[in-house]
Specification:
CATH superfamily: Aldolase class I
CATH class: Alpha Beta
Order of helices and strands: EEEHEHEHEHHEEEHEHEHEHH
CATH architecture: Alpha-Beta Barrel
Shape: globular
Helix content: 25-40%
Strand order of the largest sheet: 1-4-5-6-7-10-11-12
Structural class: alpha/beta
Distance between the termini: 15 Å
Largest sheet: 8 strands, parallel, barrel
Radius of gyration: 16 Å
Length: 251
């Protein structure tokens, strides 16, 4: 059995780590490099670096930050935000990314997933899917959750798998930053439908939520921010708790 992964996420804006609730109300969560070093030392399994800034100038600055991080950490690094072409993906890899995460651009140009996968390999392509429950349906959103799309979550998850994605990062917008637990309903549905790894995101507020993401949502990895950024728990605490409850993790 493959070990389950614990993945901290750095949402980056204007050169700082930030954290919000339901994709709104961002607050400062520290230095990018200091947080990255902390998670490297804590033996996180991977690190996700998401540029949530809008401007091209800011994104260039952020790539410089990615390079600094990649020189200091020795765990796999996924970089997302503004990856809308093979060239942008290449830039991220040249600045130290091991994987790139695509979201909005992939919805508007699904073949982008295929082009990046063919150039760099499916293992290097993570498709981030931001979903919000509307009625009884989970609808995919883009532009940091501001625009809804025509796709239902399971439909889009299957599409990105067929297009060459190597992994799915599934974020519940309803749960994001609320510390109320992952949305294990949609997490379980997508995990059961696709054969590529699914990362749970949005809502982790305690260690039991991580356990539930694996046991109820059948996720392959759990992504969290608030509980780690503000030192509510350490990565080791999380892994020891999960191991005690029968979840295979790397310690």
């Amino acid at each position: 059995m493959l070990a389950k992964r614990i993945i901290p996420c750095l949402d980056v804006r204007d050169g700082r780590v930030v954290k919000g609730i339901n994709f709104e109300g961002l607050r400062d969560a520290g230095s990018i490099l200091e947080q990255a070093k902390f998670y490297n030392d804590e033996l996180a399994d991977e690190l996700v670096f998401l540029d949530i800034s809008a401007s091209i100038e800011s994104r260039r600055t952020t790539l410089e930050e990615v390079l600094k991080v990649s020189e200091e950490v020795f765990i796999p690094l996924t970089v997302g935000g503004g990856i809308n072409s093979v060239e942008r993906a290449r830039d991220a890899f040249l600045h130290g990314a091991d994987k790139v995460s695509v979201n909005t651009a992939a919805v508007y140009d699904p073949e982008l997933i295929t082009r990046i996968a063919e150039k760099f390999g499916s293992q290097a392509v993570v498709v981030a899917i931001d979903v919000k429950k509307i009625g009884d349906k989970y609808i995919v959103h883009t532009h940091s959750g501001k625009e809804l799309t025509k796709y239902e979550a399971v439909e889009w998850a299957n599409m990105v798998q067929d297009l060459g994605a190597g992994e799915i990062l599934l974020t519940s917008m309803d749960r994001d930053g609320t510390k109320s637990g992952y949305d294990n309903e949609i997490l379980c549905e997508i995990s059961a439908t696709v054969h590529i790894p699914v990362i749970a995101s949005g809502g982790a507020g305690n260690l039991e939520h991580l356990y539930d993401g694996f046991s109820k949502g059948h996720a392959d990895a759990a992504l969290a921010a608030s509980i780690f950024h503000f030192r509510q728990y350490s990565i080791r605490e999380a892994k020891e708790y999960l191991r005690e409850r029968g979840i295979e993790v790397r310690l």
